Amino acid sequence: MKLTLRVWRQKNADAPGAMSTYQVDDISQDMSFLEMLDTLNEELILAGDDPVAFDHDCREGICGACSLVINGDAHGPERTTTCQLHMRSFQDGDTIDIEPWRASAFPVVKDLVVDRSAFDRIIQAGGYISAPTGTAPDAHATPVPKPDADFAFEHAECIGCGACVAACPNGSAMLFTSAKINHLNVLPQGAPERETRVLDMVEQMDTEGFGGCTLTGECATACPKGIPLPSISAMNKEWLRATRKVRR
Predict the structure, then answer these.
(1) What is the layout of strands, in order, in the sheet containing 18-24?
(2) What is the SS3 string spanning 180-218?
(3) How far is it, in rounded angstroms, from Cα 116 to Cα 198?
(4) pLDDT tens-digit series, residues 192-229
(5) CA neighbours closer than 13 Å in the CB half-sphere of residue 248
(6) How deeply is 184 buried, as exposed, middle or buried, from its count of CB atoms within 10 A (0-12, 13-18, 19+)?
(7) How far is 131 from 197, CA to CA, in rounded Å?
(8) How many whole angstroms separate alpha carbon 197 and alpha carbon 190?
(9) Distances in Å between the alpha carbon of 193 and those of 196, 204, 235, 242?
């Protein structure tokens, strides 16, 4: 395959950025999207140019590091992570636009790399449970009803990639925050911090400068792990419950 790549290049957060155009040849349809970028960077290095900076780690669709907007879609045309997107999703001769996540809470570090530490601070605000130290308890020591276990597992699948923020026209982090809150709040182990968790995490989310949610649904559509949109409604109910309890 022969492709034209229009890639966002930006030296740092303070420098102006712009799209740069590159031609790549002999791209196999079996390559992953990141392997295609590796090929581009090899050519740039051999030519004495600065390679394109992009974020990646496991390349197995687990860590959520591979954050790219491809032709206007978070992670590209398939509902998967960028590292699991393969070049057979494109056609020979295609022009592909590659950009970083676009959100004020995710400032650009360099080129396609953004700072997503805002997510870390939301987790630090309440994404934990009180647990005694010592050996791990038996799996059946704390019975959990199956509907609750299924609900928790569904939300625990969130990998914190940020596609929900990138896809949202408002740059909202509600889907991410709701997944982390609902995962723990439904379990008995998360009960001690149930009220403070939702209040603190939502407050931190607002402090980080994420936009407000208008339930357009783009976040759930872009989520590679399929976190459902009703997750946000469940979190809102938790927030109202916690607010009323604190006011009493």
Answers:
(1) 18-24, 3-9, 95-99, 69-70, 73-74
(2) HHHHHHCCHHHHHHHHHHHHHHHHHHHHCCCCCCCCCCH
(3) 20
(4) 999 999 999 999 999 999 999 999 999 999 999 999 99
(5) 7
(6) buried
(7) 15
(8) 9
(9) 5, 16, 14, 10
